[in-house]
DNA sequence: TAACTTCATGTAATATTATTTCAAAAAAAT
DNA sequence: ATTTTTTTGAAATAATATTACATGAAGTTA
């Protein structure tokens, strides 16, 4: 399907600083005249953007597409779609139907924003770290504890050793003895949770690979961790439902990470998941007899 | 607007009877799988539609396009404009960027479907039951346990007595002595989890108000409960990411329920949430000194 | 039904377009 | 200042789209 849900333009904007000089030329041209770009050939775009056809193709790869033709398709979808969702405030005495629409809109916008600035390479790197890790630890407090739990459930299903302890002391003890290559994932939407920061430092000291999972933007937590996963930052001041949308975004990133992980060795993954399912059914049958 | 940004699919339908036999083959193929067609080469489409590459090109001309590449662009625009999202299968060796878009699309579609068949009155009824309940119990297994936890966290924040025990025996004991008007929420996306059904029956027997929270469709669980909350049923067979999308839908319904609940007595709710926040901050400060 | 005409069709040749390779240039690192 | 790495575009190659054309089917006329 390509970039079906649009957002190619915002993705280009996001990766722009990471591109090479001549790729940036192409990027700027596309951002300026996507409607023209849509119908151009590689060579045409190369000359219009004062670069080369090779750079145009490289640009397409850099923004995560398979090739040039996909760029046209993606642009077309993006332009046709326009922007429809946005953040809405929830008012007093709201009609429930309106409420539902607003919450939906907020969640979708938050997800789209998260996708817009998702660092695909980072996802892949983290997925590989997890793949090699003998043990995985995930920790978060409050709503982030649910995310940690979700991580645990998902990777257990894949046959991994994952722990989402709530008890800091138990977690500390486990990490102190974790084998090399083990990973600690510290989850805090605000990036300001003291406990998570403490544990992150401890994990680092103990030689674990560390992953921070926070709302967008630099923070001490993201600075000191080896890898960073970000979710979009809802305009908190405006929307009281921030906690709600942010949770969806966090779960979404976990979903993505999970599938990225699974596709490292897809057949093995499918095997393991199938075995897990069978086990669940078996348990059911055993209790019935 | 330029070429192709119209309703290319309906144009194809319109001219279909006027096309030659082999052009019709192409047309039917495109109508059936526009999302696939979007990324094909001429030769691929020729073989898939059991025609020839020449016929494919002739077809493009016949529907008023300049050539084959324009068909892709037009289809992309059409699909993006129309049903923006849909359910997509995740394939092996998927490019991560494409993966992200597919997951996003699946989640959004699942949310939209859930909203589509959400019974607003039912939400309000359940919200009122919760409002009057002296104690609330939520129970689910696996991914549904996360939902139960989420419910607990949300209503604790509103000053309610909520329990999301994992231990069936503890839960049973608590419910046996629960005051009148207490509510039990049984969560099972499949509606087939034995434990949830058992507890639902027990809750009923103990005189609690019961709420089932399942995937759409009748089930024993939903039949015996006083109120039913449904989430959309993803086409499981097609999408391996079902568990993923369904979780989002479930959390979404909880969000809606939460805001519906809060708006029953909005000022009181805001007070309580504010107090909860202050408490969290205070704890932080206390540990810093 | 045979002979002719028209139109539809797929194959193969050709033209166009996308992609890769590679050597040179530029930028970083040492 | 020298080496290494990265970036770059020209040119070669691969892939893809388009066209030309021969063949055969369907229709028409005698």
Automatic annotation (TrEMBL), chains A, B:
This protein's UniProt keywords: DNA-binding, Transcription, Transcription regulation
InterPro entries given in the database record: Homeodomain-like_sf, HTH_RpiR, RpiR-like, RpiR-like_SIS, SIS_dom, SIS_dom_sf, WH-like_DNA-bd_sf
GO biological process, one term: carbohydrate derivative metabolic process
Pfam family name, one: SIS
PROSITE patterns on file: HTH_RPIR (PS51071), SIS (PS51464)
Domain of life: Bacteria
SIS domain mapped to chain residues: 126-267
Domain HTH rpiR-type: from-to ranges: 6-82
One annotated GO molecular function: DNA binding
Name of this chain's protein: HTH-type transcriptional regulator YbbH
Primary gene name: ybbH
